[in-house]
Amino acid sequence: MTTTDELATFIREVDYETLPDDIVEATKKRLLDSVGIALGAAESETAAAVRETVLQEGRDACSLWATDERASPSGAAMYNTVLTRYLDFMDSFLAPGETPHPSDNVGTVVAVGELVDATGRDLIEATALAYEIQGELAWNAPVRDRGFDHVTHTVITQATAAAALLDLDHEAIRDAIGIAGTAHNALRVTRTGGINEWKGVASGNAARNGTYAALLADNGMEGPKDLFEGQKGWKQIIAGDFEVDLDTSCSRVHDVMTKRYVAETYAQSAVEGIIDLAEEHDIDHEEVTSIDLDTFHGAKLIIGGGEGDRHEVETKAQADHSLPYMLAAALIDRQMLTEQYERARIQSEDVQTLLQTVTVEEDEELTERFEDGEMPAVIDIELEDGTTYHVEKDDFRGHPNTPMDWDELEAKFHPMAATVYGESRREEIIDCIRNLEERHVDDLLALLD
């Protein structure tokens, strides 16, 4: 039976000194990817709104990335997490019934790490354990089909990462998890129907709440220690019965994908496939009469029309959760990055016309392949003269089956961070994270001011 006692025992047992070298390396890759994505979002209107809000709480404890401002620990955790999440360029854990984004934990790890004067090894350890818990909850306790958003998992992992850095004792960790998991369960309506900006901020809110829960526990606040198994508890109301199998080597970090494109997780193979076709055959979008995508259940449900019409696209929040939009824009532009989500691009006539030709169908065989560890996509493009182009994808570059190496991550990092820092500073950030086990949280934050 999964309990707060089991999670607290796991957190106290995870130790940087016993993490395998490949786990340390993979965790540092997650940190680099998350920081780069965050810097790419630093000048967005949504980030500005969150920044102004958290600054109202206080300005003394923790750094807000890419600014010279400071906020409360929970406020900094929220703001920095919004940065990693807002562009929809973050990593994802691929489970059959849930797809959370473990990089949502990084903003909390660094904020609480600053509060406690953490070493780089402390940051790696807290990040790795958060990824492990997030992966196990996603795999064994999916909540999507029960009407809850995946940040319902995230608030628990935020609390565990913060509790580890605060060095809470066993019972206080149980309190922190109990507070976080009882008080902050998000509804799936965040990502259904008419999608709005809260989609990209919900995980930041979870970061704030998870951090605050750990701080409350650190100051002696008791929480429901029977969070999972208790009467009307998490298992009965939120997830149903489940068991986790937590590994103190934190091997789940290897099961996380890195996005190659600024697009919802389940769109990655399809976007890569349509760009491949467009480039190989030099397809003129004005000659396209139809784009047909066969995909797996989750993709159809979330971004293909299963939870609301995805052909009505006017905003970024709608565009990055619309397969019709992403396929149309990717075919025309041969790319899917931040510029494809500018309002003028979204509302332009060419992409609005082409997205209406896109159909998305679920294929049971592709769903089985997804559940077996692939991310399949089958695309057919038909032109006015009857010519048809076809491509089938098993996965994409960045999927756990074909992970990105350091050079590819650096290539992704540079254009994101270039909106804030020059090349020399960017190289310093990369070097700091790549050698984080020999550095200190202040070394990293000095580069992110």
Task: Enumerate the strands of the largest sheet in spatial order, edge to edge or round the barrel.
Answer: 6-5-7-8
- Please name the fourth-level CATH homologous superfamily of the largest domain: 2-methylcitrate dehydratase PrpD
Number of strands: 8
Structural class: alpha+beta
CATH class of the largest domain: Mainly Alpha
Q: Estimate the mean pLDDT confidence.
A: 96
- Shape estimate: globular
User: What amount of the residues lies in strands?
Assistant: 5-15%
Q: Measure the end-to-end span.
A: 44 Å
Helix-strand topology string: HHHEEHEHHHHHHEHEHHHHHEHEEHHH
Count of spatially separate domains: 2
- Determine the number of helices (DSSP H or I, runs of at least 4 residues): 20
GO molecular function, one term: 2-methylcitrate dehydratase activity
Organism: Haloferax mediterranei (strain ATCC 33500 / DSM 1411 / JCM 8866 / NBRC 14739 / NCIMB 2177 / R-4)
Protein name: 2-methylcitrate dehydratase
Family: Belongs to the PrpD family.
Molecular structure report:
This protein is α+β, with helices and mostly antiparallel strands. It folds into two domains: 4-258 and 415-447, 2-methylcitrate dehydratase PrpD (Orthogonal Bundle); 265-393, 2-methylcitrate dehydratase PrpD (60s Ribosomal Protein L30, Chain: A, 2-Layer Sandwich), CATH 3.30.1330. It is built from 20 helices and eight strands. Strand 1 (62-63) and strand 2 (70-71) form a beta hairpin. The termini are far apart.
Keywords:
MmgE_PrpD; 8 strands; MmgE_PrpD_C; globular; 8% strand; 20 helices; alpha+beta; plasmid; 2-methylcitrate dehydratase PrpD; two-stranded antiparallel ribbon; 449 residues
